[in-house]
UniProtKB/TrEMBL annotation:
Identification of the protein by name: Cytochrome c oxidase caa3-type, assembly factor CtaG-like protein
Localization in the cell: Cell membrane
Any one of the GO CC terms: plasma membrane
Membrane topology: Multi-pass membrane protein
Keyword Membrane: yes
A Pfam family annotated for this UniProt entry: Caa3_CtaG
Keywords per UniProt: Cell membrane, Membrane, Transmembrane, Transmembrane helix
Major localisation: membrane
Ranges that cross the membrane: 12-29, 75-95, 101-119, 140-161, 181-202
Native organism: Lichenicoccus roseus
Length: 215
């Protein structure tokens, strides 16, 4: 029974991740309705769908090409994830995105791609760093920009993105409250990454419990 259930786990992970992606992309169609809802869709693409999809995918045993070796380099993933997190949060990019649903879709795809690159370095089967504490430190440091952005949104005394100033929020709350909820959603969404990283830093994973698979 346990073996049969284990056989279906990958399919369940991939199916759930796919549903999350579809639902999140649909949530990007009306970004002006609520900053909190828009942020929830982006965070689902960045922090929820990637680990689910990766946990359900089989790792190939073939040798990686030069492009794959570069693309899956941990520091490339680190830089891409940090750059996307910070850039998308800047008013110069975020403001046009919330005002234009067409522009918000590519940002969602960037969030998904950067999340896949990052989580591949943390989850078993795709790790390229050679020690759990290094993997944990990598994930913890990568999550800091997202935490900083979330705190700024929660503590800012004024609305940071002008498209939301004169828009009635879907949840009948003020634009400033909506922005603070968006920061809270981002903070909570980043918690699994931080917890998983701390777990690895502290060496709490039992040896042999989850074997690394060839990448």
């Amino acid at each position: 029974m346990a073996v049969a259930l284990r056989r279906y786990w990958p399919r369940l992970f991939v199916s759930t991740g796919t549903v999350v992606v579809i639902g999140s992309v649909a949530g990007l169609r009306d970004p002006l309705a609520s900053m909190a809802s828009y942020t929830a869709s982006l965070m689902a693409l960045n922090q929820v769908a990637p680990p689910l999809l990766l946990l359900g995918m089989r790792r190939s045993s073939r040798s990686a090409s030069a492009i794959e070796q570069w693309l899956f380099d941990p520091w490339v993933a680190f830089c891409v994830f940090g750059a996307v997190t910070i850039a998308i949060s800047l008013p110069g990019i975020f403001a046009p995105a919330v005002a234009n649903a067409v522009f918000s879709a590519p940002l969602g795809l960037l969030e998904l791609a950067s999340g896949l690159l990052l989580w591949r370095q943390i989850l078993p089967g795709g790790q390229t760093l050679d020690a759990d504490w290094k993997i944990g430190a990598f994930g913890f440091l990568a999550g800091i920009p997202m935490t900083v952005v979330a705190v700024v949104w929660m503590l800012a005394p004024a609305v940071l993105y002008t498209p939301y100033l004169d828009v009635l929020c879907r949840w009948n709350i003020s634009p400033l409250a909506d922005q603070r909820w968006a920061g809270f959603i981002m903070l909570v969404s980043g918690a699994p990454l931080q917890l998983a990283s701390l777990w690895l830093i502290l060496g709490l994973r039992a040896p042999g419990l989850i074997d690394k698979q060839p990448s």
